[in-house]
Amino acid sequence: MGRLIDGEWWSDVTNDDRADFDYQETAFRDAIGGDRHPAEPGRYHLYVSRACPWAHGTLLVRELLGLENIGVSIVDPHRRGDGWEFTPEKSGCTPDRLHGSDYLREVYTAADPGYTGRVSVPVLWDERAETVVNEESDEIMRTLADAFGEGAGVDLYPEGHREEVDHYIGELYRPLNRGVYYAGFAETQSEYEDAVETVFDALDRWEAHLSDRRYLLGDRLTLADLRLFPTLVRFDAVYHTHFKCNVRRLVDYENLWAYTRDLYGTGSVSETVDPDHIKEHYYRSHDDVNPTGLVPVGPDVDFEAPHDRDEL
User: Fold this and answer.
1) CA separation for the pair 38, 32 (Å, rounded)
2) ∠ CA 273-277-282, rounded to 5°
3) Does position 177 have pLDDT exceeding 50, yes or no?
4) Which of 23, 44, 52, 182 is catalytic?
5) pLDDT at 222 over 70
6) What share of the chain in percent tops pLDDT 70?
7) Burial status of residue 302 (CB atoms within 10 A of its CB: 0-12, 13-18, 19 or more)
8) What are phi and psi of 91, to 5 degrees?
9) Would you call 181 a catalytic residue per the annotation?
10) Which pairs from 127-132 meet CB under 8 Å and 24+ separation?
């Protein structure tokens, strides 16, 4: 048994007498490097949804490393029963720029005609090998940073700090990145309350952590920050209301709110944030959470407001 959550099938498993959600294992888990997928410019392509926080992380790496030679195809934010769809006539969306597919599933079957597994974003495609390299967001972020980070002016996955970066990514994952979903898709009051408590315990922890350092690792921007930012930038628009994580807003946290504005103003990060796609996806795709499909007009969140995080 399972359910569709944010474009991914998650299976119910018993864990300490409560239902938890763990997404199904993915089929494509290769990395860039070596003979099969060499680190060659102009060879790779990303399939993403601008609404999805997991895909957002890969777009952030692409932007910050200046990897314009990695093409991007963007699906419709409203995920319907047939899956992620290409609707190039819609603002912010594109066609499948490689295959001309109508649905993302066709990209998977182009790599493996017998594929019947889940279809999710992001997807990293090798144009020359004509196959999917990877569909795990964290692994795509790592392999892009590892393969193409040298000479980019920012080292998002520094050799001497990779264990620390991975530790922070792991610490963020279940309590916060996934925690908001546990709250939003809880089936009992007690499950919901437990999930919300976990989310805000995590937010309180990172609020304190960022009180005396600019980034999670101090003065160094890394992949860990790019894993936290997509959750924070969506918090007040969707998680606070749609997933009922309404104990506090992001803007009520002095350090987390300034940290989010700091990252938003870094390089071309702001170009990766599409509030319209974000809200349309959550409020229109999750019928059991928001059966009317109405998309809220607000909130008006000013991510360009000044901050003094650079003084840290």
Assistant:
1) 6
2) 115
3) yes
4) 52
5) yes
6) 92
7) exposed
8) -55, 130
9) yes
10) 127/42, 127/43, 127/44, 127/45, 127/98, 128/40, 128/43, 129/36, 129/37, 131/28, 132/28, 132/107, 132/108
Task: For 159-189, give the DSSP string.
Answer: GGGHHHHHHHHHHHIIIIITHHHHHHT-SSH
User: How is residue 88 annotated by DSSP?
Assistant: T
**Contact call for residues 239 and 180 (beta carbons, < 8 A):** yes
Positive or negative, the CA dihedral 79, 82, 86, 87 is negative
The residue whose two tokens read 């790019």 is 226
Q: Which pTM was predicted?
A: 0.93
CATH architecture of the domain with range 159-273:
Up-down Bundle (1.20)
CA atoms of 21 and 14, how far apart (whole Å): 9
Token match 């991975």: residue? 166
Q: Which of 23, 47, 157, 181 is catalytic?
A: 181
Q: Catalytic residue at 245?
A: no
Residue type, 245: C
Domain map (residue ranges) of the chain = 159-273
Residues sharing a CB contact under 8 Å with residue 211, sequence separation 6 or more, in sequence order: 255
What is the SS3 assignment for 216? coil
Residue 213: pLDDT over 90: yes
